[in-house]
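job 3f2a | input accepted
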Amino acid sequence: MRPGPSQDDVRRQNLGALLRHVHVHGATTRAELTTTLGLNRSTIGALTADLSAVGLVSEGAPKETGRAGRPSLVVRPESARVYAYAYSIEVDRLRAARVGLGGAVLDRRDLDRPRGLLAAEAAPLLAGAVKEMQQLVPPDAICVGAGVAVCGMVRRDDGLVRLGPATGWVDEPIGAALADELGIDVPITVGNVADVAAFAEHARGVAAGCDNVLYLYGDVGVGAGIIAGGRRLTGHGGYGGEVGHMKVVRDGRPCECGARGCWETEIGEHGLLRAAGRSDARGRDALLEVFDAADRGDARAQTAVRQAGDWLGFGVANLVNVFNPEMVIFGGTMRDLYLAAAAQIRSRLNSNALGACLEHVRLRTPKLGADAPLIGAAELAFERLLADPLDVG
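job 3f2a | predicted structure (393 res):
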């Protein structure tokens, strides 16, 4: 018979629950924390005192209450003092940010990324951006970690990017490369861009309160972040969600993964630009030009957008039947395609998805917009702190 949790275990669990609530929901009164966490007032008082003592939260009177009697103290995350670094390595750009506890973006840098740039070449650029930001960090601030969102198949155990067809990466150790360049003694966690964007939207975006979510992210390729039963579903090694490589056309067009007929060959960047007669173009701006041309009446662009929308709805219907989500979110270039071809997508979804799976599903765009991967990367970094707040350095 296993022994039950010790008093110290329970205390740390309660500290983590309180800090997580304030991190996600922002300033919260002690009275609200008492109700939400199901703990008594004296326990909440002791927990907030512990977190205040290590500089993770602060307490103060509310600005206005509108009520008679003594107001309940408000607990706030120390966003300016406790932070994580977040990086988003995308097909055409690199982004770095300093994100405070509570999700506030305190500072950021955006850089163009030449396609084909390897991890050893990307890491110094990101490190340079971080060193610029470090000059503005208060001397008493605490960095609790760093998170990286990257396009590709990421091995969960060590963050190795096993395969990134859109970026040309094969077995790229981006986490180790960044650690070497940064020279900061904090853990660096790496995740797939669609997975971490789903994580962000579920925590503090459009999917807050939804326990079953599918986040489709597009650029050159297409991937998915999956939330099932309130938890991220990443598979055995961390490679789950590679929905862009579902086979939809037998002996179809070649995909950058080496197979043929993958879903992303029909709805990804190359497929849509090819169908619009713009095979020599590339990048999100080129895709936006196609959507704009279709909106202005260009017949070939309209056909390309309708076809891509139909294929997007076809794949989403299959995923809805498999995962039965409450919400499907379209991010990256999938957002642009969804907005341009909503009628085709809904029509195909309505005709192909099972009625029982379809009846409650909502289609949405990200509340966090293009920052979802960056915010998600920061959430990866904060996980260790939220699991054990007293382990802060």
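job 3f2a | The mean pLDDT is 90.
job 3f2a | closed
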